[in-house]
Amino acid sequence: MIGSDGSGGPAALSDRLTRLARVTGELVDADTVEGVCKAVVTHGAEAVGADLASMTLLSDDRRTVRLMALSGGVEGDEETWSTFPITVQTPSAEAIRTGTRLVVTGPQAITRRFTDMPDRGAQTVVALPLGAGGSVIGAIGLLFMHARELDDAEVELLDILASACAQSIGRIKAQEDAGRQAAKLAFLAEAATELASSLDYQVTLGNVARLAVPTFADWCAIDVVDDGRLRRLAVAHVDPEKVQLAHELAERYPPDPDGPYGAWHVMRTGRSELIAEITDEMLAEAAIDEEHAAIARALHLRSAVTVPLVARNRVLGVITWVTAESERHFTLDDLVLAEQLAKRAAVSLDNAELHSQTLAAAVQLQRAVLPDEVAASSGWELGHHYSPAGRTEVGGDFYDVVELDDGRLVMFIGDVMGRGVVAAAAMAQVRAAVRAYAALDPRPALVLSRLDAMFEHYGSEQLVTLLYLLADPRADTVTIANAGHPPPVLLRADGSARQLAFADGPPLGVGAPIRTEEHVGFGAGDAVVAFTDGLIERRGEDITDGQERLADAAVGLAEKALADLVPSLVQRVSDPSRDDDVAVLAARRLV
After folding, report:
1. Are residues 86 and 169 in the same domain?
2. Could you tell me the pTM of the whole model?
3. Is 97 a member of any domain?
């Protein structure tokens, strides 16, 4: 029989104690925090006959409380009390603040003490703090619509329930934390590998943004400083459909450059920012209009970490991580990891910028060396081709044509070993020197000897190959000197072709060679084709195979104009998968 206090007799008490003990056992087997909370508010409430039960947990910032589970409430309670400040006057908030079990009986006593709790006519309220690791992490709230007196056995078992609940949550969180830490470390290692893999920072940082989701965050945005302003470089979201929504938000409602928090604030100050809880008040305060607020709410923002990308005391950009659908909240540990990743990303971005500037200088220098057009008088037909390799640094191929006042034609082609600015600078020096020496005395062996002397005098460490030809229509000859370069192909007017593999010597500046030259007949209609090794080399193939392939292709194309012959040779002979520059220079005597 149930007594006037609703507690029942000894049999009912025994049943309640048994059911409470069973709930405590269930908590041991629970494998999620949500599972623990659900077991408490359902089975725990039934065990003690509570009309309403709630489970709340203190947030990481220890300023707000989150409602984890609720049974017996009215419509709207879960939304209204989803999060609330720890300072509110409710039983659970007070139990968390004080760490003390609360049992308050009587409607007047309840309403006087808990002024923020809705008046539902409760007769008894109970709040049990959840203690773990020396601190309070949450509370169990019980509400009875009838007067309820708890005897010592029930109180003791409720305390045991609260302790078991706290321990289960602590155990599960420790397991989750260990899993998250392992995932974060794996993410950091993978991101570091990605950042070191390429100098294309736009692609690299875009990949890093995608790596962060969902391991570290639900949403990641990367902005870079461009002419004093922030430019959105990459966005990744756990829900691909919301990427467009995020772009729309940034485009239609750009962040306030003078705002008190967010990417602009971090860029200005160079200091990281952690917002453990993004509240509705914050969204409303930041919104320009109701539509802006609606879009922001649709993204379900929960927590945010924003860190600067700093290298050499310059803020290069900002990375923002946001949690949303997962309802995770960032902690100081997350901020530390974010800053570690940002340091690596900043170095990668800075290196990419330096490389981009260096590459631009090298390309500009190379363009100054390589002629846009090669031209000569009406007695000559010229053709040329240059295609850079598909890489991030310029190569060392160069060529040029010089028509002398007496009608002779100098043509040369070379290859500086190496890439980048150093190779481009060497190209410029050698090209200028060849033109100068050719103007003084164009004889091939003499020009190469003077280049050797220049290399020896200045102690150049660059390895340079050079093929130098002097065509003389008066003598019907072409004279060749070669410093370690692939030999040219001679195309006769009758359509035959052969390699001119003689007068060869070491690359410029290597040893102290005696340079030689060779004279070959060169009549009207004859053509000579010079090239760099990128045209004929293929993986796993001897270079002589490439030379023969070139000669065979040249025979089939001999009747073509050089403007058509040169690109056709490149298409037929070169290996498009090979990472090397290809340069071709051809001259045909017309009269």
Report:
1. yes
2. 0.53
3. yes
